[in-house]
Amino acid sequence: MRCRVYLHSHNIIVVIKVAHDYICPWCWIGIKQMERLEKELGVSFELLGYELMPEELSWGDPAPKPDPDPRRPVTPSRMDLAYSASDMEAPANIQPKKMRSHNALLATEFAKSVGVEMAFARRLYEAYWIEGIEINDIQELTKLGKGIVPDVDALVRSVKAREFESKIVKFDDDAYAAGVFNVPTYFIGGEKYAEQPYAVLAKVIRRELEL
Known about the structure:
It is built from 8 helices and 6 strands. By secondary structure, it is α/β, with parallel strands linked by helices. The longest helix is centred in the N-terminal third of the chain and has 17 residues.
Protein backbone atom coordinates (compact mmCIF):
# COMPACT_ATOMS: atom_id res chain seq x y z
CA MET A 1 0.00 0.00 0.00
CA ARG A 2 1.70 3.17 -1.22
CA CYS A 3 0.96 6.84 -0.65
CA ARG A 4 -1.58 8.34 -3.00
CA VAL A 5 -0.43 11.32 -5.08
CA TYR A 6 -2.83 13.91 -6.46
CA LEU A 7 -2.32 16.93 -8.68
CA HIS A 8 -4.24 19.95 -7.40
CA SER A 9 -3.78 23.39 -8.99
CA HIS A 10 -0.41 22.17 -10.33
CA ASN A 11 0.70 21.18 -6.82
CA ILE A 12 1.42 17.59 -5.80
CA ILE A 13 -0.53 16.39 -2.77
CA VAL A 14 0.76 13.26 -1.08
CA VAL A 15 -1.87 11.35 0.92
CA ILE A 16 -0.55 8.90 3.52
CA LYS A 17 -2.79 6.12 4.80
CA VAL A 18 -2.77 5.50 8.55
CA ALA A 19 -4.35 2.57 10.39
CA HIS A 20 -5.81 3.87 13.65
CA ASP A 21 -8.30 3.40 16.46
CA TYR A 22 -9.53 6.09 18.82
CA ILE A 23 -9.05 4.06 21.99
CA CYS A 24 -5.29 3.61 21.49
CA PRO A 25 -3.04 6.09 23.32
CA TRP A 26 -0.42 5.71 20.60
CA CYS A 27 -3.02 6.97 18.13
CA TRP A 28 -3.68 10.01 20.33
CA ILE A 29 0.00 10.77 19.86
CA GLY A 30 -0.39 9.89 16.19
CA ILE A 31 -3.13 12.43 15.48
CA LYS A 32 -0.86 15.13 16.88
CA GLN A 33 2.00 13.85 14.73
CA MET A 34 -0.26 14.06 11.68
CA GLU A 35 -1.21 17.65 12.46
CA ARG A 36 2.46 18.60 12.66
CA LEU A 37 3.39 16.67 9.50
CA GLU A 38 0.56 18.34 7.60
CA LYS A 39 1.77 21.76 8.71
CA GLU A 40 5.51 21.24 8.25
CA LEU A 41 5.66 18.93 5.20
CA GLY A 42 2.40 19.66 3.40
CA VAL A 43 1.23 16.05 3.25
CA SER A 44 -2.30 14.84 3.89
CA PHE A 45 -3.62 11.74 5.63
CA GLU A 46 -6.36 9.19 5.15
CA LEU A 47 -7.42 7.31 8.28
CA LEU A 48 -8.17 3.60 8.05
CA GLY A 49 -10.31 2.19 10.84
CA TYR A 50 -8.64 -0.80 12.53
CA GLU A 51 -10.84 -1.81 15.43
CA LEU A 52 -8.80 -2.97 18.42
CA MET A 53 -11.71 -4.36 20.46
CA PRO A 54 -14.54 -5.56 18.20
CA GLU A 55 -17.51 -7.31 19.76
CA GLU A 56 -15.92 -10.67 19.03
CA LEU A 57 -13.13 -9.96 21.53
CA SER A 58 -13.75 -9.89 25.26
CA TRP A 59 -12.16 -7.37 27.56
CA GLY A 60 -9.53 -8.89 29.79
CA ASP A 61 -8.43 -7.50 33.12
CA PRO A 62 -4.78 -6.44 33.43
CA ALA A 63 -2.54 -8.60 35.53
CA PRO A 64 -1.83 -7.10 38.98
CA LYS A 65 1.49 -5.35 39.19
CA PRO A 66 3.96 -6.57 41.82
CA ASP A 67 4.81 -4.20 44.62
CA PRO A 68 7.80 -2.11 43.53
CA ASP A 69 11.13 -2.47 45.26
CA PRO A 70 11.48 0.83 47.19
CA ARG A 71 15.21 0.80 46.46
CA ARG A 72 14.66 0.84 42.70
CA PRO A 73 14.37 4.27 41.02
CA VAL A 74 11.34 4.92 38.87
CA THR A 75 12.02 4.36 35.17
CA PRO A 76 9.88 5.63 32.28
CA SER A 77 7.66 3.24 30.37
CA ARG A 78 7.52 3.05 26.56
CA MET A 79 4.38 5.15 26.76
CA ASP A 80 6.14 7.74 28.93
CA LEU A 81 8.98 7.93 26.42
CA ALA A 82 6.53 8.24 23.51
CA TYR A 83 4.80 11.24 25.11
CA SER A 84 8.15 12.80 25.92
CA ALA A 85 9.42 12.32 22.35
CA SER A 86 6.33 14.13 21.08
CA ASP A 87 6.58 16.87 23.72
CA MET A 88 3.13 15.89 25.03
CA GLU A 89 1.70 15.46 28.48
CA ALA A 90 -0.08 12.20 29.22
CA PRO A 91 -3.83 12.89 29.39
CA ALA A 92 -5.72 12.54 32.63
CA ASN A 93 -7.17 9.10 33.25
CA ILE A 94 -10.77 10.11 32.52
CA GLN A 95 -11.51 8.12 29.35
CA PRO A 96 -14.55 5.80 29.41
CA LYS A 97 -13.35 2.36 30.45
CA LYS A 98 -13.70 -0.61 28.11
CA MET A 99 -15.27 1.51 25.41
CA ARG A 100 -15.57 -0.05 21.99
CA SER A 101 -15.08 2.17 18.97
CA HIS A 102 -17.08 0.65 16.12
CA ASN A 103 -19.64 3.46 15.83
CA ALA A 104 -16.92 6.10 16.00
CA LEU A 105 -15.01 4.40 13.19
CA LEU A 106 -18.17 4.07 11.08
CA ALA A 107 -18.91 7.76 11.65
CA THR A 108 -15.40 8.65 10.54
CA GLU A 109 -15.91 6.75 7.30
CA PHE A 110 -19.05 8.78 6.68
CA ALA A 111 -17.11 11.98 7.43
CA LYS A 112 -14.50 10.82 4.91
CA SER A 113 -17.23 10.40 2.27
CA VAL A 114 -18.25 14.06 2.66
CA GLY A 115 -14.70 15.45 2.82
CA VAL A 116 -14.36 16.32 6.52
CA GLU A 117 -12.57 13.24 7.79
CA MET A 118 -9.57 14.79 9.53
CA ALA A 119 -11.47 17.65 11.19
CA PHE A 120 -14.03 15.16 12.52
CA ALA A 121 -11.36 12.70 13.67
CA ARG A 122 -9.44 15.40 15.52
CA ARG A 123 -12.63 16.38 17.33
CA LEU A 124 -13.31 12.80 18.34
CA TYR A 125 -9.76 12.25 19.58
CA GLU A 126 -9.89 15.39 21.70
CA ALA A 127 -13.34 14.50 23.01
CA TYR A 128 -12.21 11.04 24.13
CA TRP A 129 -8.70 11.73 25.42
CA ILE A 130 -9.10 15.24 26.86
CA GLU A 131 -12.80 15.51 27.72
CA GLY A 132 -13.54 11.90 28.61
CA ILE A 133 -16.56 11.66 26.29
CA GLU A 134 -17.90 8.28 25.21
CA ILE A 135 -17.45 8.90 21.51
CA ASN A 136 -18.96 5.55 20.53
CA ASP A 137 -22.38 6.71 21.72
CA ILE A 138 -24.50 7.86 18.78
CA GLN A 139 -25.94 10.83 20.67
CA GLU A 140 -22.44 12.02 21.47
CA LEU A 141 -21.39 11.53 17.84
CA THR A 142 -24.34 13.72 16.85
CA LYS A 143 -23.16 16.51 19.14
CA LEU A 144 -19.54 16.19 18.09
CA GLY A 145 -20.39 16.25 14.40
CA LYS A 146 -22.25 19.57 14.56
CA GLY A 147 -20.34 22.35 12.86
CA ILE A 148 -18.07 19.82 11.10
CA VAL A 149 -20.28 17.33 9.26
CA PRO A 150 -22.66 19.11 6.83
CA ASP A 151 -25.58 16.74 7.50
CA VAL A 152 -25.43 15.23 10.99
CA ASP A 153 -28.72 13.40 10.51
CA ALA A 154 -27.22 11.61 7.50
CA LEU A 155 -24.22 10.66 9.64
CA VAL A 156 -26.51 9.09 12.24
CA ARG A 157 -28.44 7.18 9.58
CA SER A 158 -25.17 5.94 8.11
CA VAL A 159 -23.88 4.68 11.46
CA LYS A 160 -27.16 2.97 12.37
CA ALA A 161 -27.31 1.30 8.96
CA ARG A 162 -23.61 0.33 9.21
CA GLU A 163 -23.18 1.76 5.73
CA PHE A 164 -19.38 1.56 5.81
CA GLU A 165 -19.08 -1.72 7.71
CA SER A 166 -16.80 -3.22 5.04
CA LYS A 167 -14.26 -0.44 5.58
CA ILE A 168 -13.53 -1.38 9.20
CA VAL A 169 -10.76 -3.95 9.73
CA LYS A 170 -10.99 -5.89 12.97
CA PHE A 171 -8.28 -7.17 15.26
CA ASP A 172 -6.81 -9.64 15.61
CA ASP A 173 -7.10 -11.98 12.61
CA ASP A 174 -8.19 -9.57 9.88
CA ALA A 175 -5.74 -6.88 10.95
CA TYR A 176 -2.85 -9.33 11.14
CA ALA A 177 -3.77 -10.69 7.69
CA ALA A 178 -3.49 -7.11 6.39
CA GLY A 179 -0.04 -6.79 7.96
CA VAL A 180 -1.16 -4.42 10.73
CA PHE A 181 -0.09 -5.48 14.21
CA ASN A 182 -0.08 -2.08 15.93
CA VAL A 183 -1.88 1.22 15.61
CA PRO A 184 -1.07 3.73 14.41
CA THR A 185 0.58 2.16 11.38
CA TYR A 186 1.69 4.60 8.69
CA PHE A 187 1.95 3.33 5.09
CA ILE A 188 4.79 5.30 3.50
CA GLY A 189 6.68 4.44 0.35
CA GLY A 190 5.55 0.84 0.30
CA GLU A 191 6.69 0.28 3.90
CA LYS A 192 4.84 0.23 7.22
CA TYR A 193 5.87 2.31 10.25
CA ALA A 194 4.16 1.55 13.57
CA GLU A 195 4.28 3.53 16.83
CA GLN A 196 7.19 5.62 15.55
CA PRO A 197 8.42 8.98 16.90
CA TYR A 198 7.90 12.11 14.86
CA ALA A 199 11.55 12.30 13.77
CA VAL A 200 11.38 8.89 12.09
CA LEU A 201 8.12 9.67 10.29
CA ALA A 202 9.35 13.07 9.11
CA LYS A 203 12.56 11.54 7.77
CA VAL A 204 10.86 8.85 5.70
CA ILE A 205 8.20 11.26 4.42
CA ARG A 206 10.86 13.74 3.32
CA ARG A 207 12.62 10.91 1.51
CA GLU A 208 9.35 9.96 -0.17
CA LEU A 209 8.71 13.55 -1.25
CA GLU A 210 12.12 13.72 -2.91
CA LEU A 211 11.40 10.74 -5.20
